[in-house]
Design brief:
146 residues; mainly alpha; Glycoprotein, Type 4 Pilin; three-stranded antiparallel β-sheet; 44% helix
Length: 146
């Protein structure tokens, strides 16, 4: 019997992880995070640009519905707010043409730029991208309805 007790005691001492093993695991996790984090952040940034393109397409469709109901697009003074709230002096307004008022704000929390008539068509809806300045590349590039 004493031999069994000795074996049991030895097994109890072997339970758990050593400090070295924990440090190795933490180092591996740190490397994985260091490699993966920039890619995840890049996906998040590109998803904002894709969301802006989708919102611009939705605004353009809403503007066309507004045109069908009223015979004209909203003026620049009325702006895109005319798609959410009835502007003064418009008789045949059949809106709201957008379900949410935040649909006229880009993913960077700036209002979309609306030009009527547009340089690229009957109207232009655009966003200046992540930097809020004209021009740029990648996430800073301008996005538009054209």
């Amino acid at each position: 019997m004493p031999a069994r007790k000795h074996i049991k005691t030895a097994r109890l001492g072997e339970r758990g992880y050593s400090l070295l093993e924990l440090l190795v695991v933490l180092a591996i996790l740190g490397l994985i995070i260091a490699i993966a984090a920039p890619r995840v952040i890049g996906y998040f940034d590109s998803s904002k640009a894709k969301a802006a393109q989708i919102q611009i397409a939705n605004i353009a469709a809403a503007l066309d519905l507004y045109y069908l109901a009223n015979g004209a697009y909203p003026s620049e003074q009325q702006g895109l707010k005319a798609l959410v709230e009835k502007p003064e002096g418009v008789q045949a307004w059949d809106g709201p043409y957008l379900n949410r008022a935040d649909g006229i704000v880009d993913p960077w929390d700036r209002p979309y730029i609306y030009k009527q008539p547009g340089m690229h068509g009957k109207f232009d809806v655009s966003s200046l991208g992540a930097d809020g300045k004209e021009g740029g590349e990648d996430e800073d590039r301008d996005l538009g309805s054209w």
